[in-house]
Amino acid sequence: MPVTDITHDLETLTLTITAQFAAPVERIWDIYADPRQLEKVWGPPEYPATVVDHSLTPGGRVTYYMTGPEGDRHYGYWSVLEVDQPRSFSYEDGFAHEDFSPNTDLPVSTSVSTFTAQDGGTRAVYVTTFASREGLQTVLDMGVEEGSRTAIDQIDGLVA
């Protein structure tokens, strides 16, 4: 299992996920840079993702939806802030309506994904920061920790 640690901190309003992959940094980067590969790991297995738009460049946008077991769809977007290929990227992460306009009833966060070479593989650290304690608690109540773990754990199968 790639995920080695998940912590949330209601004081700093962060959710941090650490993972270790048996693949080089460039290979892990390629997953996020390619929408077809990203689809295989962005949602948990029971909520697979479909990427609609994908521009992993500063000012770019990634839009997607996850389809649940009953056919229900859950829409989201990234507004890409910074990219340091293949080491890191940051983005505003939000929930969306079917037309991919932001759903302001749900929290928006800022996420930073960092990849570093370690022990012949890649150490990935995903830090998500929320604007409020309520926003962080909302996603925790939605099951973000377990959903993220099962989604990220799919990366090993993709890079094998």
From TrEMBL:
Pfam families for this protein: AHSA1
SUPFAM superfamilies according to UniProt: Bet v1-like
Activator of Hsp90 ATPase homologue 1/2-like C-terminal domain span: 22-159
InterPro entries, per database record: ASHA1/2-like_C (IPR013538), START-like_dom_sf (IPR023393)
Family: Belongs to the AHA1 family.
Protein name, entry field: Polyketide cyclase
Organism field: Brachybacterium ginsengisoli
